[in-house]
Structure formats: structure tokens, C-alpha cells
Amino acid sequence: MSTTTTAIEQGYRKQFARRIILLVALALATALSFFFDMVVGPSMLSVSEVFQAIFSPGAVELSSKVIVWEVRMPYSIMALLVGASLSLAGCEMQTIMNNAMASPFTLGVSAAASFGAALAIIIGVSLPGVAGDWMVIVNAFVFAFGATLLLQALSSTRGAGPEGLVLFGIALVFTFNAFTGIMQYMASAEALQQFIFWSLGSLTKANWDNIPLLFLLFVVIVPFSLAAAWPLTALRLGEDSARSFGVSVRRLRFLSLLRISLLTAGSVAFVGTIGFIGLVGPHIAKLLIGEDHRFSLPASILSGALIMSLASLASKAIVAGAIIPVGIVTSLIGVPVFIALILNKRKR
Amino acid sequence: MATLRIDNLHTGYPGKPIISGLTLPPLVSGEVTILTGPNAAGKSTLLRAIAGLLRTKGSITYEGQDLGPLSPQKRAGVVSFMPQSVPTDINLSVIEAVISALKASPLDAAGDGNEQLHNRAIAVLERIGISHLALEPLNQLSGGQRQMASLARSVVREPKVLLLDEPTSALDLKHQLKVMRLARSFAADGRIVVMVLHDLNLALKWADQVIVMDKGTIASHGRPTTAITPDIIAQVYGVAIRVEICSLGLPNLIVDREL
């Protein structure tokens, strides 16, 4: 082995090790943020009370136990799950659409979900046999999934490239927003208020019924996503190149779109519209770790979970005693980052 | 000697046929074939069709095997394509990109352990002369360096047919010669090398066979000095040229004027 070969091999190994360390650091930061998210809240429980409530629930007052187990823990876990899901979906989407500004919301999936929710909240229409709170969730899911089926139909049409998909996604956003507008116009004041709260995106919908569902969805999808890491990395080198390396790009895009839609639909159905995580999460991941998808996919999962967890923490810390809907916080963080990304791209 | 045959080929883009009923002279292993011709003559379209990137009718066979029905992975075992342009904003190092070309789909040949693949990737970078760039991110390279890195990716899977679409377009004089020398050495490995080039002087000096295309058809083909003649160039490009033999005994093309 020549000295150059050894030097390159060593350099590559060092890069590899550096990325593993970054992933571990991201995981630790996420764990830390989760801890603070659990500890901070309007009811002013002390750290030891929170720990006691978690590890020996019998030894604390019922109210503390309820706050920790029924409010804080579902919120904090949901924040991690939704952040991770949306950011993973965003990372895949930016790659398959070859567009750094793509995010699950560009697809129109969230707009479709919002329309579904509007149907449930304002008119009370849902699938037969579905009632109560589940109507909103089921409707959001059905419409989000329907939108992705449309996108998938388009993605399997010949000649529909990344630009076609993005344009179609934008068309879906406007169409569903218009439908939702009609619903809002017809709505009673009370229904309208309820719908607006849903559409803001809030972790208060988290509970022990929906967390296991989203968790299951997430852990089933992640291995498939990670298994596609090499073809996705190859796709970054251009569609012609990827195909020349033996990647069936149509199939890759179709399956990736399926994962994106399930992750997005699941998240939106349970917590409403949360903007920008799907855009900002993957960008931060790729800035830190590069675009080798073996690392950028897990890094996106972790950075999304971290940002969402920090947003959840901020939503409680900004106004003492109140919880601002977390969707507002993510948008407030997301907008400046989004503008910085665009300006940075222009400069280049 | 392996042969690539293209018979009665029809191809193009949706609603825009570019090539209709094209039959090429056989392309054989060990030879460098240069496709040239004016803009929009169908050169890149032909190359992309051979690479399986476009819908085609007619037959493209390698050693008697029809490439049309092959899966992308099987086809990649035979043909590799280097595109004219590559994305510029990729945050991957040169070596990572070469390894991803190897890992994107399973390789035909055995021996795909990580260490073997890494050594293979490094060997290709050394052969192409860019091993010093191995750990550099692609988005920080010059256009020419990116083109050399793209060449490394297109050859690393050891294809039997190597298709290069204007591989010298971003390169300085020295690197142009380097790429031509590499193309010859890839052919000497027993590959069929087909490249699209605009530089007729490079074509005259380095090709075994030249195919001059015009409006989706073949205007002339054969040994370089047979295919590139003043009459053909006048007819295809509308330009008056001379081909003269220089003091080293090599053909040189001199452009006189527009016709």
C-alpha cells in the first residue's frame, strides 16, 4: 500500500470517526433538551419532584404524578417523535427532489391534512365509525395520505422530474388552502377558534393513545430509510449518474415518497401543522455532517428531535405560566433560518 | 474482441424525437470512438440512449445481449455514463462520492468488502491523478477538478462500455490531454470508450474512429482523417477548414472562415 493510499484511508477513517462523535453529541444534546423539557413547566415542580414522579410515582402527590406522566412526558416525547419524523422526511425529500428548499410541506401534505381536520372540526364529517377527537386525527391522516397518493401517481409518470413534483406540491398547497378557506368562511365562531388552534400545531394533543402509534410508524420506517442511504447519496450526484451506478431512481423516489408521506401524515395528524422543522433540521444536519446519507439521515432525525424539543422548551419558557403553541415557536425560529439559507444560496 | 452494436435506433424526449432509425458502425473493445458534430446534432442524446437513460426503440446489443430489457443494476454492470454537467453544491468528499458510486447498487464481481472497495476507489483516484483531492469536498473544487472527479466515478465500477459526454469541456490544455490519454488507457484495458467531443483537433489525434453526426444522422464515420474532411465539415458546420500534416506527422485542423 502506497503512502498516499494509507493517508487517504486514514483521512477517511478520521472523517468517519468525527461523524460518529457528532452523532453522539447530537444525541446527548437531544437527551439534555428532553430533560429540561421535562423539568420546565407552568406548575413549577422541582427537579427532584419530577425525578421522583418518574422513578417512584407512589411517593409523590397525585397532582405531581399526573402533571409529569399525563402532561409533561407525553408532550416531551411527542416533541422528539414529531421533530425526528418531520426532519427525516425533509432530509429524504430534499434529496429525491434535488432541491434544498424542499420540505414535507412543499408537497401539500400538511395543507391536505389541515383540510381534513377542518372537515372534522367545522362540519363534523369523517369516516363511518369514527367519532370524537379521533375524527380530526383520522381525517388529517386520510387527506394527507390521499395527497401523497396523488404525488406518487405523478412520480410514477414518465417525464415527471423533481421540478414537476415540486410544482404539483405547490398546486396541492393552494388547492387545499382554498378548500380550507371555504370551510373557515362557513364556520361558526366556536368551530373556527377550535380549528385555528389545531392548525397552529400544538403538543397539547399528545397523549398515551397517539404516542405509541407515531412511535410504531417511526421505528418501522427508519430502517427502510437507512437501508436506502447509499442510493440516496448516489442520487445527490445527479439522476443520470445514479442511474448509471445501477440505481432504479423511479423506484427509489417512489419508496422515499411513501416514507415521507407516512412520516408527515402521522406527525400532522397528531399535533397539527408544525412548520420549518422539515426544512431546518436536515439543513443543520448536513452542515454538520455532510451529505453521506449513512450519517445525514440519522443526524437529521436527531437534529429535528433536538430543535423540536428546544422549541417545546421555549414555548413554555417565553411567557411564564403559559404554553405558546409550539408551531408558532418553530416558525419563529424557522423563518430567519430559511431567509439565511436563501441569502446564502444566492451569494454562492 | 467485444462489440457494441446499435441498429435502427429511435430515441428522443417526450414529444420530441431526436434520432430516428440510426444504425452505427460496430463499436469494438480497445478502441476510442469520438462522436462529434454541431450543436443539437443528437450526440448527447445518442450517448444517453446507449446508457439506458432514455426510452429507445431498435436494438442496442453488447456481445449479442440486448441491453434494453436489463434492470438498471444489470445494465450498470455493462455501461457507465459520465454526464456533461454535475451538480455543484454537493457536500461530499471526492472519495465519498466515488465510494457511493460503488455502493449505490450491488456490484457484479465478487469482492465487495469495505476495505476492497476503499482500495478500489483510491486506486481509481490515483490512476486519474486526483488522489491529492480525495478528502476535499466536491463543492469546494474547481469546475475542472469536479470533472476529473466525475470521470473517476464513471469508471470505478469497471464498466465494459464507457460513455463520456464532453469530458474535457471544463479542462485546461494539460488536463484535456490527460483525459484523452486516460481514455486511451481505459480502451487499452479492453473497454469500449465512446466520447462526445467538440474539439476536432483532439478527435483527429486521439480517436480510433470518428463519427460525425448531423440532425440525428451520421454525416460521416471512419478513421479520423477519413471522417473529418473539408467537404464534410463544410456540409455539416458551414465552415471552411484544412487538415494539414504537421512537422511531427500528425493531422492538424485549421479553420479558415465561415461559409
List the helices and strands and how they pair.
The complex is a heterodimer of chains A (348) and B (259).
Chain A: H1 3-39, H2 47-55, H3 62-96, H4 109-123, H5 134-155, H6 162-186, H7 189-200, H8 210-227, H9 229-235, H10 239-244, H11 249-271, H12 277-289, H13 293-317, H14 326-347
Helix pairs in contact in A: 1-3, 1-13, 2-3, 3-8, 3-11, 3-12, 3-13, 4-5, 4-6, 4-7, 4-11, 5-6, 5-11, 8-11, 12-13, 13-14
Chain B: E1 3-13, E2 16-22, E3 27-28, E4 32-36, H1 43-50, E5 56-62, E6 65-66, H2 72-76, E7 79-82, H3 94-103, H4 114-128, H5 143-155, E8 161-165, H6 173-188, E9 192-196, H7 200-206, E10 209-214, E11 217-222, H8 224-227, H9 230-237, E12 239-245, E13 251-258
Parallel strand pairs in B: 4-9, 4-10, 7-8, 8-9
Antiparallel strand pairs in B: 1-2, 1-3, 1-5, 5-6, 10-11, 12-13
Helix pairs in contact in B: 3-4, 3-5, 4-5
Q: How would you describe this structure to a colleague?
A:
- Chain A: Keywords: Cell membrane, Membrane, Transmembrane, Transmembrane helix, Transport.
- The complex is a heterodimer of chains A (348) and B (259).
- Chain A has one domain (22-347): Orthogonal Bundle (ABC transporter involved in vitamin B12 uptake, BtuC), CATH 1.10.3470.
- Chain A has 14 helices and no strands.
- Chain A has helices at residues 3-39, 47-55, 62-96, 109-123, 134-155, 162-186, 189-200, 210-227, 229-235, 239-244, 249-271, 277-289, 293-317, 326-347.
- In chain A, α3 (62-96) runs parallel beside α8 and α4 (109-123) runs parallel beside α11 (249-271).
- The mean pLDDT of chain A is 85.
- Chain B has two domains: 1-78 and 159-228, Rossmann fold (3-Layer(aba) Sandwich); 86-153, no CATH class.
- Chain B has a six-stranded mixed beta sheet, sandwiched between helices. In chain B, strands 1, 2, 3, 5 and 6 form a five-stranded antiparallel beta sheet that branches.
- The longest helix of chain B has 16 residues, at 173-188.
- The relative contact order of chain B is 0.17.
- At the A-B interface, α1, α9 and α10 of A face α2, β7, α3, α4 and α5 of B.
